[in-house]
């Protein structure tokens, strides 16, 4: 912490163009080392080989993008005059500019330990901050490789530190340390705990999601099914932006479920080294949690479209039809290759279910009526709505943040204190 503080004081005085130059160099080095870093991702977190390479390359591109945008954004100030506010004469002037926060604590998740680390590192560095990275337990080696690329680019000693260890052992020490000036965290419920302990410092939290997919009766069902399978089962569903519940109008539910099942049957299951679609989930604890959700739904009458199959941490993809709101999987985030389908009688019912969730990260709507799609999007209390496409984190320069228990801090979103029952007439759904 002390070395980070000292390094930041000097780094803040480094010219903006020089910071950008070094970030460009780091981005290039990161892409040059994509193969060994990707191999770590395959071995540590069972990420399919192709996806692992893609993560490293997009991370290098993001570093360079931040260098370019940082120069544009931070190179500008704002000049205000007093008579622009009622009742004042032109007697005062105000010049505003952006200044570094200081030492930033960055905590990325296991599923994207490189990409979601650089999404914190690069903006912090271009803005003149130093950074302490606490990588996830699974994914720490890949993160160390990534940090080494920044060191090879010539960043000053102490500016970028990487502290490995279990969050249960070192998490409170880091997040409550008086030397930390900002915390950027991506993960689950732990983020809520951090926000309660951190004190009066800026927080940026990207937390969990129960991303809803609403399918209307006029939707292109083949497109919807393809996006549902891609969105729900990519990286075995271990993504905060994965489709986590399908809300489909009853009149097209049978046809949609049939098409989704046909595509699920084609997913390959096995080792990440073989670039399979479905690979083992990250821990035995996660596997047991996922199985608990499936068994609860089965006992309460859900239809298992495939036989439930598990070998260790490897869970075969499973679609659950006829899920009801009294089942845990209707509300809880499985973070695995299981996807519930809830049949709805109206669009309003689907919006109501979406908004009753504690989460509000992303969602999607499938319909050929763009006016209807926008109206539904406005009614969904979530950060981002994809129209006729699956939820996604990228492109990486797009704003990304949720509402409610899905996060705070990275973009301005109007408070959505709305009741869907009061909106029917206005929306004319």
From TrEMBL:
InterPro entries: Ald_DH/histidinol_DH, Ald_DH_C, Ald_DH_CS_CYS, Ald_DH_CS_GLU, Ald_DH_N, Aldehyde_DH_dom, ALDH-related_metabolic_enz. It comes from the Eukaryota. It is an enzyme of class 1 (oxidoreductase). Transmembrane segments: none annotated. The active site is at 206. The keyword Zinc-finger does not apply. Residues 2-413 form the Aldehyde dehydrogenase domain. Keywords: Oxidoreductase. Its EC number is 1.2.1.9. Gene3D superfamilies: Aldehyde Dehydrogenase, Chain A, domain 1, Aldehyde Dehydrogenase, Chain A, domain 2. SUPFAM superfamilies: ALDH-like. It catalyses: D-glyceraldehyde 3-phosphate + NADP(+) + H2O = (2R)-3-phosphoglycerate + NADPH + 2 H(+). Belongs to the aldehyde dehydrogenase family. This is NADP-dependent glyceraldehyde-3-phosphate dehydrogenase. It comes from Rehmannia glutinosa (Chinese foxglove).
């Amino acid at each position: 912490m002390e070395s980070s503080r000292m390094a930041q004081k000097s780094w803040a005085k480094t010219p903006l163009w020089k910071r950008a130059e070094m970030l460009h160099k780091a981005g290039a080095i990161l892409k040059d080392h994509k193969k060994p870093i990707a191999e770590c991702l395959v071995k540590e977190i069972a990420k399919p080989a192709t996806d692992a390479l893609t993560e490293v390359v997009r991370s290098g591109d993001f570093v360079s993008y931040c260098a370019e945008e940082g120069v544009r954004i931070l190179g500008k100030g704002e000049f205000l005059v007093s008579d622009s506010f009622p009742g004042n004469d032109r007697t005062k002037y105000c010049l505003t500019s952006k200044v570094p926060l200081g030492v930033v604590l960055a905590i990325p998740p296991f599923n994207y330990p490189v990409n979601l680390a650089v999404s914190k590192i690069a903006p912090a560095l271009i803005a003149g901050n130093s950074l302490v990275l606490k990588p996830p337990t699974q994914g720490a080696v890949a993160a160390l490789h990534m940090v080494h690329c920044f060191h090879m680019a010539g960043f000053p000693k102490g500016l970028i530190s990487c502290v490995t260890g279990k969050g249960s052992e070192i998490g409170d020490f880091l997040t409550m340390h008086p030397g930390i000036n900002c915390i950027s965290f991506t993960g689950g419920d732990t983020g809520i705990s951090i926000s309660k302990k951190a004190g009066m410092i800026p927080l940026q939290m990207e937390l969990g999601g129960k991303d809803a997919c609403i399918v209307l009766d006029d939707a292109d069902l083949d497109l919807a099914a393809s996006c549902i399978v891609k969105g729900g089962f990519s990286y075995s569903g271990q993504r905060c932006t994965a489709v986590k519940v399908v809300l489909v109008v009853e009149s097209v539910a049978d046809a949609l479920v049939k098409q989704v099942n046909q595509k699920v049957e084609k997913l390959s299951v096995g080792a990440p080294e073989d670039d399979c679609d479905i690979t083992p989930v990250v821990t035995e604890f996660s596997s047991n949690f996922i199985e608990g959700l499936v068994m609860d739904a089965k006992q309460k009458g859900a239809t298992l479209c495939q036989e439930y199959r598990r070998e260790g941490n490897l869970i075969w993809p499973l679609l659950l039809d006829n899920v009801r709101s009294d089942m845990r999987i209707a509300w809880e985030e499985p973070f695995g290759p299981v996807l519930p389908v809830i049949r709805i009688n109206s669009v309003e019912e689907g919006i109501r279910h979406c908004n009753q969730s504690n989460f509000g990260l992303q969602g999607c709507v499938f319909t050929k009526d763009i006016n209807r799609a926008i109206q539904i999007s406005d009614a969904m209390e979530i950060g981002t709505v994809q129209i006729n496409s699956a939820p996604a984190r990228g492109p990486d320069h797009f704003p990304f943040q949720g509402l409610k228990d899905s996060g705070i801090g990275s973009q301005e979103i109007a408070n959505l204190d709305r009741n869907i029952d009061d909106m029917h007439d206005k929306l004319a759904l």
